Amino acid sequence: MKTTMDLMEGIFPRGSRVLKESAKKRIMQKRIKDSASNFSPAGNKNDEKEAANMPVTCSTYYSVSVPKAELLNKIKNLPEEAGGDDEQVDINEKKAELIQSLTHKLEILKEAKESLLADIKLNNTLGEEVESLISGLCKPNEFDKYRMFIGDLDKVVSLLLSLSGRLARVENVLSSLGEDADKQEWVSLNEKRKMLASQHEDARELKDNLDRRERVVLDILCSYLSEEQLQDYQHFVKMKSGLLIEQRELDDKIKLGQEQLKCLLESLPTEYFLESKMATEPPAIPGTNPDNRSTPSFL
């Protein structure tokens, strides 16, 4: 299954040590705090792997999301595989364990995003300081080139993220359609894929043009800034694009987790929560209104 990040690979230098370490630090800090958790990592991985490998047979994949539709198929098939009440109870317990696991992971991702937003705020502050410095040193036309480059950096990153996400979604649907798929649906999706692939290629050309402008701006700033000031500028630019991409990646994971959690909660009978060892009512989905669990507000 393709993701937004798969199609962003190689476009931006997000593999920098700074970004990798900051992301790892956010996740590991939360995991260390919760190291006494009772969840089974091996079991969770098996559940996730099984869900990812479920066959796809319907166009529901484009109206919700591929992972959610896979989970819907999995849950739909579980009762048919159950041979009796005991097996059904066991299935419900496995669902409950997965709900606990997903809730825990969503809490980790939520804290990671809060930390990421703090990093973005710090980097924006650094950008304001750099801009203030440059405005007092450069000629007006040189400063305009700097501001236009920084403004377009945001736009190009956002455009590529959006197109990569939409293209990945369509390609996943196409690859999941079986031989008995509706021909008209296949043709429509294939046309959409071609259009998005063309737009994605155009956006990559915009990124190449942006890279050339970045080199022009760097040459200008080399004439005015000290080595330390230049390093601040380069760090700001690298982190600006990298943090935007990392934010999108976290948002995608949170949205996926919320969809899967909502789907699992809806698949369990109400009486299960009353009779089981879980709380007397289903857990709220992190990032949603606890009084309206059926309509989560995705981040």
Automatic annotation (TrEMBL):
Its main location: cytoplasm. GO terms for biological process: actin filament organization. The keyword Coiled coil applies. It is found in: Cytoplasm, Cytoskeleton. InterPro entries: ASD2_dom, Shroom_fam. Residues 92-119 form a coiled coil. Signal peptide: none annotated. Keywords: Coiled coil, Cytoplasm, Cytoskeleton. One of its GO terms (cellular component) is apical plasma membrane. GO terms for molecular function: actin filament binding. Residues 289-299 have a biased composition (Polar residues). Residues 1-269 form the ASD2 domain. It comes from the Eukaryota. Residues 29-50, 280-299 are annotated as: Disordered. The keyword Iron does not apply. Pfam families: ASD2. Belongs to the shroom family. This is ASD2 domain-containing protein.
